[in-house]
Structure formats: structure tokens, C-alpha cells
Design goal:
alpha+beta; three-stranded antiparallel sheet; about 45% helix; single chain; elongated; Beta Polymerase, domain 2; five-stranded mixed sheet; 2 domains
Length: about 375
């Protein structure tokens, strides 16, 4: 065995990639990098091995190639106009070996090199695809969905063509009940790409429900109903992800205290009284602005609560003495809205379509980067189709 000897000499000139080291040392997101730091295809293979793919296994190259093809198709469909599809260089769009993109993404030059810029963009999207394909929670999604909605179905009941929220005592009629069973693959990928933390952040709205009531005061009573049914508690709510632009609780408390006795003694369902309470609440309430989502449009009002639920799945390799299923926490969303807020969300800046477009714009900017966006702007515009 050769003895080790301290040395700073190597076959190549001693140099440091300051940009790359800065990113590692200071926590710069991978999606915001404009280049990698690989020297050749040998480096690329080592990079891929440490990333998690054993290229000696026959399935690994096929998985990488499939992710590359999906990434190119996603970029063309989501971030480019149809006439811009050909802007991606052939050696990036259809490489002989997708690992070559890692080398292209490491090219250092002063001018904007199309191969480097496009390779970086495609690799960023591939990174998101690998995250989705290797997320263990998503692999157990059928069990998660069954357990989450099994609990919700105990309090959200359907009768006579209408849904109701009930804990066995109060029974609140819903104007609309929207159930999100699963977030589509492209939608998950888009959300990952536009998040500041990139893949370090989870996606919290794979599953969820939107409960729309006639009034904001009913939304307050819905909170009470969900709390009494133990779907919401201080131990299972992700406080950091609560978004309330709907209810001023101090003003709501004042209005509720004034009308509580009338609510208790009302005959039938007191919708008129609840609307009267809403009018007073609107006059007293301060604007609620706790919303950290940069893509939410002005005028969008809701209460959005992220709930942690322990999910149980069978563990195939459990120890013989372990007689219980493995559990992990999964987070889903409950959103409350009143009728007016719901109608505002259907059009204009507060609409879902406008929200989605803002997400696309953010993700496109982060995936492409400033250099590639400038390069795209400088390319000749395609000729319009013949009349």
C-alpha cells in the first residue's frame, strides 16, 4: 500500500470554481445556477453515481433517458410557443447520451452559449422529475388518499343533492364542495420549479377540499365544526402554512358575541341573520393580509389550513417483533371561502387561471435564467402562417 503524503500538486493547474463553491457554501438553490462544474464525461458519470443512479444497472440509463425526454417535452409545452420548439439545439433535445448535457452545462465562456444554457434548463426540469419519481409519499398515494378522504367523509356528508359539513350537532349547508383528489404530474413539476426552495420544499396541496359557504360567519362556524370533529387542532395544523385573508377573528368575535343568543334561538336555518352578521363584520373587519404566496392575485380571499395526518402503510421488511404499521405524516389542505370570495376567484386577477399563469411565468424565468431569456428574445421571430 502506497503511503499517503500531503501535497497540493496535481496533474492540472490548481484552480477554484468560485461561483459553484459560493453556491454550496451559501445555500444557493440549484435552480438558480447558470452552470455546473464538471470537466468531462468521466466527471459526469461520477456525478450521476453520487446523485443516485448506478449506470452499471441496465435500467438506470433508460430511466435517465425517459426523464430527459419528459423534460424536453415539458419545456416545449409549458414555456415555449409552438414555433419556438426548434430553438432547443438538437444535441440537447436529442443527445446520443443524456449525460453529455452535464458536460454542456459546465462549459465556461464569456458569451451566451446555447448548448450550455439549454442544457442547464433541461437538467433543472429533469431534477424535478427525478424528485417526483423517487418521492416515497407519492408511491403510497393510494393509501394516503383513502385515509385522508376517509376522515373527511365522516364530516362532509351528501344528502338530497347537496353537501353539508356536520360534526353531529351543527349542520352547515355548502354552496360548493370541491375535492382535489390528486395534483397532476405536470402541475406538481411546475410548482416545484417555481418554489424558492426548489425541491427542498414539499408540495402541500396534492390532496385537499374547498368548502364554500354563503357567508363568512358560516366559515367561522365551519372552523368550530372541524375543530370539534378533531380534524383541526393545534397539534395537527401546520401553523407556518396557515393563510387567512378571509376572517378578522377579533371582529368576528365581536359580531358573534352580539348575535349568539339569536343564533341559538332561531327557527330553522338563520341564513338572513348570518347575512346581517356578515354585513356588520365587513364594516368592522381589518384587511387580512397573511398570505406569503407571491402568485395569489389581489382580491383573493380564503382561509387555507394545512393539516398533518398520520398515514399508516404496511412495512414489508418489518422486524418480526414489530406488530404495528409504519406511520408518516402527510399534509393536505382545507380551504374555506364565502360565496362572494368564491365568485371573485372565478375571473380576473384572483382567478385560478391567472394564478396558474403567474406560476408559469415564475417557473419559466427560474428554469431559463436571464441569459437564456435574452438569447430567446434575440432569435428571429418565426414567420406568421399563410392566410
Amino acid at each position: 500500500m502506497t503511503a499517503l503524503q500531503a501535497s497540493l500538486k496535481g496533474a492540472a493547474k490548481l484552480s477554484l470554481n468560485w461561483t459553484y463553491l459560493h453556491a454550496i457554501a451559501n445555500g444557493v438553490s440549484a435552480i438558480d445556477l447558470e452552470a455546473l462544474a464538471l470537466r468531462n464525461l468521466h466527471d459526469a458519470r461520477q456525478f450521476v453515481r453520487e446523485y443516485g443512479f448506478d449506470l452499471d444497472q441496465p435500467a438506470a440509463p433508460a430511466l435517465i433517458r425517459r426523464a430527459h425526454q419528459e423534460a424536453v417535452a415539458f419545456i416545449r409545452a409549458t414555456f415555449l410557443a409552438p414555433a419556438q420548439a426548434a430553438l432547443i439545439p438538437p444535441e440537447v433535445a436529442t443527445p446520443d447520451d443524456p449525460l453529455q448535457l452535464l458536460v454542456y452545462a459546465s462549459l465556461h465562456c464569456q458569451q451566451a452559449d446555447a448548448r450550455r444554457l439549454w442544457a442547464c434548463a433541461v437538467l433543472k426540469v429533469m431534477h424535478g422529475i427525478f424528485y417526483i419519481d423517487n418521492n416515497l409519499k407519492l408511491r403510497h398515494f393510494h393509501a394516503i388518499r383513502a385515509q385522508v378522504f376517509g376522515t373527511l367523509d365522516e364530516v362532509i356528508r351528501h344528502d338530497g343533492g347537496r353537501h353539508y359539513l356536520t360534526d353531529g350537532e351543527l349542520c352547515l349547508p355548502l354552496l360548493h364542495y370541491d375535492r382535489k383528489d390528486n395534483k397532476g404530474r405536470n402541475s406538481i413539476l411546475l410548482k416545484l420549479l417555481q418554489k424558492a426552495a426548489y425541491l427542498a420544499a414539499d408540495i402541500y396541496d396534492h390532496l385537499g377540499v374547498r368548502l364554500v359557504f354563503a357567508t363568512r360567519c358560516e366559515c367561522l362556524l365551519a372552523l368550530r365544526t372541524l375543530q370539534r370533529a378533531h380534524l383541526l387542532s393545534v397539534t395537527n395544523v401546520d401553523a407556518g402554512r396557515t393563510r387567512n385573508t378571509l376572517l378578522d377573528l377579533d371582529a368576528a368575535k365581536q359580531v358573534f358575541s352580539k348575535y349568539r343568543a339569536q343564533l341559538e334561538h332561531a327557527d330553522g336555518y338563520p341564513l338572513a341573520l348570518l347575512r346581517q352578521m356578515d354585513a356588520e363584520l365587513a364594516a368592522l373587519a381589518q384587511p387580512q393580509t397573511r398570505c406569503d404566496n407571491p402568485h395569489s392575485g389581489s382580491g383573493f380571499s380564503s382561509m387555507q389550513v394545512t393539516v398533518r395526518k398520520m398515514i399508516h402503510v404496511q412495512q414489508l421488511d418489518a422486524a418480526p417483533e414489530q406488530d404495528y404499521d409504519v406511520g408518516f405524516f402527510f399534509e393536505y389542505e382545507i380551504q374555506l371561502m364565502d360565496e362572494d370570495s368564491y365568485h371573485r376567484s372565478l375571473s380576473g386577477p384572483a382567478s385560478h387561471a391567472a394564478y396558474k399563469q403567474r406560476q408559469v411565468d415564475t417557473a419559466r424565468t427560474r428554469v431559463f435564467g436571464r441569459e437564456l431569456l435574452r438569447w430567446i428574445e434575440q432569435q428571429p421571430q418565426p414567420a406568421p402562417p399563410p392566410a
